[in-house]
């Protein structure tokens, strides 16, 4: 509770700083500023960069203060501090990053662990997308195929990929193949449903306009349906990437030699909390990075999103 | 995402430590499912509650490390049948944990099995080099595995060691995905259907590979409530002795409580030993042998890079006073 109170206090302090000290420096004179009423107007809400910076700083401040870190000026009283086995100070976690990056953990370096996880996610996701998007299109365009695949897709969609792990081990073993199949299954249904929703969302007037201009079926698919479905597919891809990234960590709990999830799990068996925290932070950073890349790709490849 | 997790963890531990400060009206004991022991008869019949005069809750755990984590948060006070490696890891990390007794010895119930297709026996064990092996890391099986490989002169760094619980290891071994799998209990029984062991339990004992589980307690709680700990050990001892004469009557109850069928319970219990208090207090165990063994395990794990800083001596984390007290009860 104390921690929560301190955190709320820090939010208020940071808010006060951004509102009263920084606001005059950073305010921009634009259209939004001239609006008389902005509450409830979502387009007038802009994320405050300063608040984001303060947010990250606040976490590190609390983390450092309660672990007796050398990096923070303030410290919680001795009785309140957490022992390193429960929460090591930030510099200990950083020290771990450095040693594992150079010496490795369980025969593989940090880089190799992370690459192994990223490779599985990207491989599983691409396989899921390559099959899922055509599947979704087929379901959106053909009555027989929709009827055929509908029960399968709707049945598999709510099954959490983690529930499939035992089956995947029995059927496909414990090799790399098995892990990629699991991630493929995690992304396939999401991509299929996103693609189908994309097809369903194409305005009929556009399709008719294309036909009236003499477009062939192929041209309608290529120049009308695909571009209009793309924003939905991207939304699905971002969701699928998130699910894959969450699943890979669990997939690596079973019989992996390398990977970020394996690192966390094995470290927890030996109470090396610094490695666990390092793994959690790295997974968060990479997941965030992947999402940023997807957003950039979306802006580049489907700039017409929300304008059709 | 990270900030939420950190925050939730901090809030949770604060809430839990607040709960631990309450007066002792009930205690919680951590135990394993599918790990039948005579004291589960007392667990099922409420004999502990009667003898101790407090409510005794039983919570099943997956691993010994999770047990010590739960203990440190104040959620459980007694860990029944924690493996030696998790205990060594927890006490080396500075947790307030104390060993107060030996729960069960099982040299024959914890081993490594080589897949039949490998044709590997004690004579040509180095043929395992370069192969894939499944080991539940941080457990007694992990220690036994490292010790056996050391004995045969197999270079562990050439093996590809993957972390798998015994049940999964058995499934993968059956598929032929692994050259060897290590584990205990039901998983080990299934493994043996598909391969052979390198050393028998007796041969491992000769090499000094002792496999047993311990009874460990929250040392702060134990210091404040010595009579509860001694009472717990007393009831456990009574059940272990009673099991020797009333096996048939107790088996169905134990089978139910441990979540295993009758035959498997019977078979598993055949591989278990429950040393009596006198033996446990002797030099071979808590009289000094146990402490020396803990040190050996800790140093061995440290050598393999799994434990950061072993204690100089494990005399301080073994406390025989509760058992002495229980012996007089």
Using brief descriptors, characterize the structure shown.
A: mainly alpha; 2 domains; 12 helices; flat; B: alpha/beta; D-Maltodextrin-Binding Protein, domain 2; five-stranded mixed beta sheet; disordered N terminus
The chain pair forming the largest interface, with residue counts per chain, is: A-B, 41 and 41 residues
Give the domain tally of chain B: 2
Largest sheet properties of chain A: none
Per CATH, what is the topology of the largest domain in chain B?
D-Maltodextrin-Binding Protein, domain 2
Q: How many distinct helices of chain A?
A: 12
Instruction: Label the overall shape of chain A.
Output: flat
Describe the sheet with the most strands of chain B: 5 strands, mixed
- Unreliable runs of chain A: none
Q: What is Rg of chain B?
A: 20 Å
Please describe what this structure looks like.
The complex is a heterodimer of chains A (308) and B (329). By secondary structure, chain A is mainly alpha-helical. Chain A has two domains: 2-82, no CATH class; 110-301, MetI-like fold (Orthogonal Bundle), CATH 1.10.3720. Helix content of chain A is 72%, strand content 0%. In chain A, helix 1 packs antiparallel against helix 3. The two termini of chain A are 49 Å apart. Chain B folds into two domains: 27-106 and 211-328, Periplasmic binding protein-like II (D-Maltodextrin-Binding Protein, domain 2); 108-206, 3-Layer(aba) Sandwich (D-Maltodextrin-Binding Protein, domain 2), CATH 3.40.190. Chain B contains 16 helices and ten strands. In chain B, the strands form two sheets. A five-stranded mixed beta sheet of chain B has the order 2-1-3-10-4. In chain B, helix 5 crosses helix 15 (289-303) and helix 11 (226-245) crosses helix 16. The radius of gyration of chain B is 20 Å and the shape is globular. The N and C termini of chain B lie far apart (53 Å). The model of chain B is unreliable at 1-22 (pLDDT under 50).
